[in-house]
Structure prediction request, 430 residues.
Amino acid sequence: MLARLPYTLLWILALPLVLLRLLWRARRQPEYLRHVGERFGRYRIAAPAPVFWVHAVSVGETRAAEPLVRALLARWPDRSVVLTHMTPTGRATSKTLFGDDPRVLRVYLPYDLGFLSARFLRRFRPQVGLIMETELWPNLLAACRKRRVPVLLANARLSERSAARYARWPALTGLTLVALNAIAAQTDDDARRLAALGGGRVDVTGNIKFDIAPPESLLQLGDAFRARFGTRPVILAASTREGEEASILDAFAACAPDDALLALVPRHPQRFDEVAGLVRARGLSLQRRSDDGPVAPNTRVWLGDSMGEMFAYYAAADVALLGGSWLAFGGQNLIEACAVGTPVVLGPHTFNFALVADQAVEAGAALRADDPRAGMAAAVALLRDPSRRQAIGAAGRGFAAAHRGATERTMAIVEELVGCGKAPLPPGRR
Prediction:
């Protein structure tokens, strides 16, 4: 409690600023002003008991959670899943993935103050909690421990940079990790870092994102996109981040053949119009995914202004540049590209997915480049070499298939948590 006191006081002091940030973000995404009461533990819905609780902050975590949620629903058909998020895009993604399934409820997780966490737990009374990837909330986990709700940190990853940040507050970090009943880490390195910070049971289960199968509906949508493009070669800039698009557009204008089309998909929907402005400022003709009809032959850039369709974008492209890897954002998930057999070119900054990126390059499923211009040149070279492009695509499919199985290994831990009732699990592999 003493270790959490300064943290709690900071939260209380920061709460007015947090609300102002909500208002600020609502300027671009009005959805931030919907369901505000849920962020304070006020809910209008109730879930039929018993329930599993899965926390997935935003889009990436929600997509990663999909195989787990489906496995939970299949394994326990008499139970429901409460999916909690922190962003409207994460919430919208869960709606896209699970539709109106009455057994999947979606709400916002309250801010990390003890009395708000208690409200959430009293409302839904989860039997087990699964927190995706790296979300460590000290007061929430303390509330779970007090109410004897077993919690698993699933698909856990922790970069060296993040581990160094957590290490600055060893007492708080250790207390938080000890409150977890188990940790299912993606890699040996992730497990080592989490154990060094104070994690108790840490198992290496692999990356659940390898278990996400390309939905047939999105593969068909990819075919429809391709029909709109015609026979033109297509370079995809996938999940780009602020500051990357300008360099990618300049590299495309300088390096790509005149008949090539750049499919540009920003990661955050509130930036769609901003990125469209960058395209027009360079004199490049633009169409949007939201426009109807085929892509005109003289269109140079096709803006992917939609959410939840990344598999379709990858399936429609000849080669992809991975966003988030050209500046120090840490990269994005490249598994979707590998799964559909699209060669992917990575930038130098992939520390959030370091092992997956290195393994993909080693397996011949991806290429590395130092900057957007070198990345675009590598993409253009692949357009001109169909046999090499096909070989990299086939290597990507094999790479994705070889690393599946994390969901099954994680579910084995969940079954232990359910079976052990309220007791902590015994120590596991470090």
